[in-house]
Amino acid sequence: MQRFHWRDEIRGLDAEADCERIVRILGTLEFPWDLEQALGLALYRTYAVPSIGQLLGDTHEFTERTQHRYDDTALILNDIMEHGFGPGRGRDALRRMNQMHRSYDISNDDYRYVLSTFVVMPVRWLNDYGYGWRRLSDHEIAASTNYYRKLGRHMGIKDIPETYAEFRQLMDSYEAEHFAFTKGGRAVSDATLDLMVDFYPAWQRPLVRPFTRGLLDPPLIKAFDYPEPSAFWRKGGDLALRLRARIVRRMRPRKEQRWARMSPNIRSYPEGYEPDRIGTFPKGCPVPHDMLTRDVGATGAKVPAPGQAVAPAPRAPETANAAPETASTAPEPTER
């Protein structure tokens, strides 16, 4: 298999009709690590919008259950991408996500902004920052844009931009207008950074925090009221990621798909999970009848109790036919 095998396969696919297939190839075969980082930064940026960051802080989900919240977000988005929007596991994950979102007063403008970060940040990471082992083509950018437009429609978002350029304009203008400090946004940012640091071996952790902050652009640093990263960490992080891209370019193409659910950073559900049984169940949100829950914070929200991410196995029915079956295996009676 040649290094550009998957790029060549994508060229033969339609950017609209085959957008789901193209996004799966990009996310699990061509750029699994890169897109994980880019989409992580996309979500991270949203904390700097006061109406989003403060809401997330008020739910206590990102500060009290940071690992679970990280896992739930990654797994729900993974299932939608892996299984699609049709009936089955993908639609279950989409319904679970919509249940959580609709339990809060989130504006359509905030929804559109969050969607724009998912469209724009992967392109910026791979193409604009130069961290990809190759650049995304216009064809691939169009396919990714179409995929997230499709996701947005399933989420009920209105006035979705039609092109990548429109998404980029939306994201940049929204951030310029709305980025600002809030205590909730800062608390969520700190909790997320703490979690990211914990993903690495102990000897690397003192380096991970300044390295990560060095990747944050000045408006984001200002919105979280972080000290400006030094030139050493700014340039060092950039050079390290560009060097990684050159090394990856010389590797053989990936043959096995790498889904987010396979990441060692996903730790909350070692025995598996079902998408309709993870995440938060805010006040008024329906909870599976056979699932035990516990309360979180003072919000009235419930979350699955330990071991409840998989539905309990159904018990074998007790019937009156059990006695004859037992009798048939018993010894024959002795004649008198």
Largest sheet: 2 strands, antiparallel
Give the end-to-end Cα distance, rounded to a whole number of Å. 80 Å
Which term fits the overall shape? globular
- How much helix is in the residues? 55-70%
Q: Show unreliable segments.
A: 323-336
* Chain-averaged pLDDT: 91
- How much of the sequence lies in strands comes to under 5%
Give, in order, the helices and strands.
HHHHHHHHHHHHHHEEH
What report would you give on this structure?
With 336 residues, this protein is an all-alpha fold. It has helices at 5-11, 19-30, 32-46, 50-59, 61-64, 66-83, 89-102, 108-128, 138-154, 164-178, 183-198, 205-213, 218-223, 231-249, 322-329; strands spanning 293-296, 301-304. Strands 1-2 form a two-stranded antiparallel sheet. Strand 1 (293-296) and strand 2 form a beta hairpin. It is globular and about 55 Å long. The N and C termini lie far apart (80 Å).
Question: How would the blueprint of this fold be written?
Answer:
Blueprint: H1 5-11, H2 19-30, H3 32-46, H4 50-59, H5 61-64, H6 66-83, H7 89-102, H8 108-128, H9 138-154, H10 164-178, H11 183-198, H12 205-213, H13 218-223, H14 231-249, E1 293-296, E2 301-304, H15 322-329
Antiparallel strand pairs: 1-2
Helix pairs in contact: 2-3, 2-9, 3-8, 4-11, 6-7, 8-9, 8-10, 11-12, 12-14
